[in-house]
Amino acid sequence: MILIVDDQKHIRDGLQAMLSQFPMEIDNIYCAANGIEALQILRQHSVQLVITDIMMPDMDGLSLMAHTKEERIKVDYLIISGYSDFAYAQKAIGLGAKGYLLKPVKREDLQTAVEHALLEVRTRQALARNMENISRRAMETDRKELSMFMQGAAGDEAWIRQTQQQNPVLWNNYRLCLLREELWINQPGASSSHSMESIAYGVYGRQGCICLQHRPYLILAVDAAVDTGALPTALQEGQIRAVTAMTGPQQGLKGLPGSYTQVMDLFRHSYLFPDKRCILWEQIEGLEQQWQLPYEELYELFQLIGTKNSGKISEGISMIFHKDVLQRYHIRYTQQLCRAVVQMLEEYERVIRPYMGEEALDIECLRNLYDYPGIRDYIQALQQQLLRLNQFYYEFKCSYRNTQDLNEAIRYIHENYHKPLDLAMVSNHVSLNYAYFSNLFKKNIGKGFAEYLRDVRLDKARRLLAETENKIVKVAAMVGYESYKSFTRAFRDVMDMQPTEYRQLMRRKNEREGKYHDTAL
Q: Which long-range contacts (CB under 8 A, 24 or more apart) does 185-188 make?
């Protein structure tokens, strides 16, 4: 963008007309009648080049240059002067003007001067952008190295000393700070991590704050001398709901990995204290490390499954996961309690699974507490799955309460699935007509006898394949198949894979879950 400043309108119009006809690309051309008008335009717009007369009323060209220099407005100047104004032109050159043009201004001289001036401006801008990109890439590399060191990567003494010297004041007394933004489940919208980072820099200053990680949670090293309540207050004023976890003060970069372990422990404990905006290390140091899980209460709770006591089930979960209980112990207590409930859910679901048809519980969603925004959301999801299980059991009991013969048949199948078994044998066992029993079975169970028996046998077979080292031939015999070939054909039809492939798949899954469990601990 170019600004033309001259008190004579015909000169302004003439210069604007010439500039418009030049082959160079010029975004906008502004005009002003004196330095005062020009200064207002320069304050409002990003102008690259000013073409100004020296001698003007109100504010001349030299005064305009002086004002822009005082206000740190970055802009280049070309001076227009007459022969009698040459001394002023020299002063303008001294103030940084890129050149001057004698009146009357010739088209060729104007084009050459403007092209040279704009080329210099654009070259300077390109260099500045390159330097900025280089600086940004260097900072990003430093941040990644710090993040890796924080999470346990090795760092030699020379690197530690060099990195610490880049910000010695901060690394001499710092805290690690983790910010967990509070979001509703499935809440739309992007993360506010960059907004939170900006607020943190406003609180601590550029020298008192370093970003070490953006995802999945924002982690900062911040000046430990600043009050711990300053950042949570600033976030609240910025209308960002976030839980802040802060470690104790740490001296020296060598302590960064230990601080990371501490801040992640604080992050996990923040689930126990959903009403706290800021959680500090001293607030969890006194939590009990020894406990006994409430197995009796859990057994009593699951005894209610299949009844009309859905209210008592919800109440039981609320009592077992009561915040006064959870907040007494280290977060590991809550994690173990969650796993115990999930295991009992799986046991109950396994019993009723053959009668559920296409319906199913979503137990997978309960395996990781930290997939939820907070402990309350997890407890709500847990209650939902328990109530669904209760409903399944209740409907099952109602459906078969007056069908004792069918119940006996199902029990007989589950006890004798590993023996040679057919529809005639089972119908004889419950003393029912063959055809009548076949229709009754399909109507109430939702599948024919042969399909049901196959599913029971294959369900047992899958458990044996996953949990034992028995050979496939032996597994086939253990679940009632007289030949290896018929077993593998049935297994492949249902599972779309061979028994050996299923066993390998489950082994890999167990290995991954074992690694995940170790990491979680």
A: 185/372, 185/373, 185/377
Residue 71: how many CA atoms within 13 Å on its side-chain side? 13
Is residue 364 within 8 Å of residue 400, measured between CB atoms?
no
With contact defined as beta carbons under 8 Å apart, do 179 and 279 qualify?
no
Which of the two residues, 510 and 300, has the higher pLDDT score?
300
With contact defined as beta carbons under 8 Å apart, do 65 and 98 qualify? no
Helical residues (DSSP H) of 401-448, grouped into ranges: 404-416, 423-429, 434-445
Q: What pLDDT score does 143 carry?
A: 72
Q: How far apart are CA 78 and CA 120, in angstroms?
A: 13
In the β-sheet with 29-32, what is the strand arrangement from edge to edge? 29-32, 2-5, 49-53, 76-81, 100-102
Q: pLDDT value at position 140? A: 62
Contact 46, 66 (CB under 8 A): no
Three-class SS state of 187: coil
Range 199-208 contact pairs with CB under 8 angstroms and sequence separation of 24 or more: 199/231, 199/234, 199/235, 199/238, 199/240, 200/231, 200/234, 202/234, 203/230, 203/231, 203/234, 204/231, 207/167, 207/169, 207/170, 208/169, 208/170
Half-sphere exposure (Cβ direction) of 4: Cα atoms closer than 13 Å: 22
CB neighbour list of residue 443: distance below 8 Å, 6 or more residues apart: none
Nearest residue to 397 via CA among 351, 362, 450: 351
Give the burial class of 208: count Cβ atoms within 10 A of its Cβ; 0-12 exposed, 13-18 middle, 19 or more buried. Answer: buried
> In this structure, are residues 6 and 34 in contact, taking their beta carbons and an 8 Å threshold?
no
SS3 content of the chain, % helix, strand, coil (to 5): 60, 10, 30
What is the distance between the alpha carbons of residues 28 and 42, in angstroms, rounded to a whole number?
13
Residue 402 pLDDT: 42
Give the span between the Cα atoms of 344 and 348, in whole angstroms: 6
Kindly tell me the burial class for residue 17, based on how many C-beta atoms sit within 10 Å of its own C-beta (0-12, 13-18, 19 or more). exposed
pTM across the whole model: 0.52
Residue 492: the pLDDT is 93
- Give how far Cα 468 sits from Cα of 13, 132, 276, 464, 518, Å: 93, 61, 47, 5, 22
> pLDDT class for 332, splitting at 50, 70, 90?
very high
Q: What is the mean pLDDT of residues 197-205?
A: 92
- Is pLDDT at 438 greater than 70 in this prediction? yes
Mean pLDDT on 492-504: 91
> Does residue 479 contact residue 418 with C-beta atoms inside 8 Å?
yes
**Which range among 141-150, 226-235, 265-274, 407-416 shows the weakest confidence by mean pLDDT?**
141-150
Yes or no: say if 166 and 142 are a contact pair by the CB < 8 Å rule: yes
Q: Both tokens of residue 202?
A: 């406003």
How many whole angstroms separate alpha carbon 163 and alpha carbon 433?
Answer: 85
Distance CA(475)–CA(84), nearest Å, equals 110
Contact between residue 361 and residue 287 where contact means Cβ atoms under 8 Å apart = no
The structure tokens 């020894």 sit at 290
